Inverse folding.
């Protein structure tokens, strides 16, 4: 083995940022700025010129009322001790008419290590299961609450979370990981369960197949809604020719509608987007496959499509209207998961989970960092 000149630090632990804002964290002090020599990385600014700064937006708002050369008092916490400094504001090099303190900032929240999370399982219509480091956590983004379960999953497993549990399917066998119970399937009309692609309330949405009697070499593909509590298929319908291979079935927050997405073999392109009622009846819609990739429901009647790196389209099922939205740079190009509250989306990068309110412009909230995040499940743990 070659000689090692330095000892590498262990990887950072997965942590969650929870609760209400607690001030503005100084992430970096810009050299040759007003803050240099006064503020340090790690300081938490709690007031600016006597105005409380619970979050970054409040600090930037207070700063916007000043001009370069103004002398202001900045109150902050350093190592949990309150202190203050007088800062003479500099000019923003990108806009000389705007003042700047000279720090990189983000809103400070209470930080909880993932390994320390415990307590009762969070429940609510927005709560969703998330695989982190192979363990299922339940997260309610409207309350920024996390709960840890004892359920372990492998990333390669096809698992889905419903309001009644976490299920996996392997070689046509469905198992409830909460109870380790094997769920029998009724094979209604000869449909065989192949893959789980979503949930509606306590039910699973499945891709099913069956042989074509008049042509044994062909296999028909369909979608079904299955109740694991009673081992009953509520309905099963074949997909239309040209729809493609179903890869997701996203239930609306009220459980009344389902948007189903089909792709070409290999998943290179979207070949079908349909809206169905909860009882398996198609809802006539036109041109949905031209809007981009459906990523979920913003609320009971509007579907969010990813239409570009920094663009999204909000589609209203009732009247077919659409609205284009611009995403913040921090979430551009990242996978999106609508919360279902009508305004917010989760965004996932390799190690972090973030929240953006699409109805507002401004800071993207960090929810989890330094985490090995796998699959993000559908909302509706307690729908």
């Amino acid at each position: 083995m070659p000689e090692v000149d330095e000892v590498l630090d262990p990887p950072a632990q997965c942590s969650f940022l929870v609760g209400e804002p607690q001030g503005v964290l100084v992430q970096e002090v810009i050299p040759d700025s007003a803050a240099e020599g006064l503020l340090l990385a790690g300081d938490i600014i709690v007031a600016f010129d006597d105005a409380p700064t619970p979050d970054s937006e409040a600090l930037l708002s207070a700063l916007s009322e000043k001009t370069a050369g103004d002398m202001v008092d900045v109150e902050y916490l350093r190592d949990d001790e309150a202190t203050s400094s007088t800062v003479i504001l500099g000019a923003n090099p990108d806009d000389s008419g705007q003042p700047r303190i000279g720090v990189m900032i983000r809103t400070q929240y209470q930080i909880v290590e993932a390994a320390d999370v415990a307590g009762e399982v969070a429940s609510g219509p927005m709560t969703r299961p998330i695989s982190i480091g192979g363990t299922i956590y339940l997260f309610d983004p409207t309350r920024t609450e996390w709960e840890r379960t004892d359920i372990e999953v492998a990333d390669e497993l096809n698992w889905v979370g419903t309001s009644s549990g976490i299920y996996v399917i392997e070689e046509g066998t469905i198992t409830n990981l909460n109870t380790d119970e094997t769920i029998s399937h009724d094979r209604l009309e000869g449909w065989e369960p192949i893959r789980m692609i979503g949930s509606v309330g306590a039910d699973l949405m499945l891709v099913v197949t069956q042989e074509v009697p008049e042509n044994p070499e062909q296999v028909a593909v369909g979608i079904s809604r299955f109740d694991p509590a009673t081992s009953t298929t509520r309905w099963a319908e074949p997909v239309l020719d040209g729809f493609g291979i179903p890869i997701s079935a996203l239930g609306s927050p009220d459980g009344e509608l389902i948007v189903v997405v089909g792709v070409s073999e290999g998943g290179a392109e979207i070949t079908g987007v349909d809206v169905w009622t909860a009882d398996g009846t198609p809802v006539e819609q036109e041109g949905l496959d031209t809007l981009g990739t459906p990523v979920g429901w913003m609320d009971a009647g509007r579907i969010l499509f990813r239409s570009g790196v920094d663009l999204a389209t909000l589609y209203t099922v009732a009247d077919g209207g659409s609205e284009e939205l611009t995403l913040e740079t921090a979430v551009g190009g990242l996978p999106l998961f609508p919360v279902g509250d009508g305004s917010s989306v989760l965004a996932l990068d390799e190690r972090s989970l973030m929240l953006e309110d699409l109805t507002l412009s401004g800071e993207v909230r960090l929810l989890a960092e330094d985490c090995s995040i796998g699959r993000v499940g559908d909302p509706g743990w307690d729908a």
In short: Residues 213 and 219 are 9 Å apart (CA to CA). The domain at 21-108 is CATH 2.30.42.10 (Pdz3 Domain). The mean pLDDT is 90.
